[in-house]
């Protein structure tokens, strides 16, 4: 009886291993941080950001 139970459990487990949804649930959470790290690495850091303010007026009225 116990041997048959293990055979059924093994068959059900192997059947689920073949499904796409099982692999999506296993690999998905691992793949998301890898993609995020890859995007941030490719974006890179080009140093300090530069900001320029151009003003043609010589005086301000407040």
Structure characterization notes:
The model has no long low-confidence stretch (mean pLDDT 82). By secondary structure, the protein is an all-alpha fold. 65% of the residues lie in helices and 0% in strands.
Q: Which properties best describe this structure?
A:
single chain, 62 residues, mainly alpha, 2 helices
Layout of helices and strands, plus pairs?
Elements: H1 2-17, H2 20-43
Short description:
With 62 residues, this protein is an all-alpha fold.
Number of helices: 2
Number of strands: 0
Summarize the helix and strand pattern as letters: HH
Task: Please tell me what the overall shape is.
Answer: rod-shaped
Distance between the termini: 91 Å
């Amino acid at each position: 009886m116990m041997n048959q139970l293990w055979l059924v459990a093994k068959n059900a487990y192997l059947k689920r291993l073949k499904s796409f949804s099982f692999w999506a649930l296993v690999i998905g959470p691992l793949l998301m941080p890898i993609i995020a790290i890859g995007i941030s690495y490719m974006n890179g850091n080009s140093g300090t950001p530069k900001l320029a303010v151009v003003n043609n007026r010589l005086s301000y009225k407040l």
